[in-house]
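Hello forum,

I keep getting stuck at the same step: I have a sequence, I want structure tokens, and every attempt I make locally crashes halfway through. Rather than fight my setup again tonight, could one of you with a working pipeline run this one for me? It's a single chain of 214 residues.
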Amino acid sequence: MNYEVKNVWSVLLRLYHWAFVLSIVALVVTGFYINNPWTNTTLEGNVPFPMATMRYLHFVAGYLFTAAVLIRIFLFIFGNKHERIMDILPVTSRNIKSLSTTLGYYSYVSDQHDSRLGHNVLAGIIYIVTLIAALFQLVGGFYMLYPEAGFWQVFGNTLFNSQQEGRFIHHLLMWYFIIFAFTHVYMVVWNDLKSPEGLVSSIFTGKKFKRKNV
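Reply #2:
Ran it on my machine without issues. Output:
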């Protein structure tokens, strides 16, 4: 069967993806430590202070996470046709059909596969929800990092009421990203095995394979 190579993901989107991945891994590991340290942190007077190191790594990863989110928002507006938000919102007949087809395909009700090169609409909706969660996460993080800064104090108090509530929501949202990451990897591999479009390799190369019309 003949396939043709199509450019789908820009370099900027691929950079966003891997920055997002690396920052989430670093934030989760350091976040667990900050929440419940598993080493002795009472000897900071004469040995390296592990809590300070973990907090520093958490802050650096938080800035990388923020940069990734801003890049994705930029691509939603100015990216190529596969990366823009209108390609994944269920507001057109084409996108609504994509959503219906994908739901049938994933539930094994239908063998029909959405052949679009970019994200299917179901995945796109989940990515939008994830981006909204990411915005809450980074606002909560900066609110805890700069509790007395005017902007973050007003914004944080408005969204979270208090630092304690902000910290609790911050921790809960971490679990959303953990579940999302495992589900995302599973679905990507599942799709790659079911449909030979090069889905896994595309996030490295930016290219997908489309079946030629005979």
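The chain has seven helices and two strands. If your local run keeps crashing, start a new thread with the error log.
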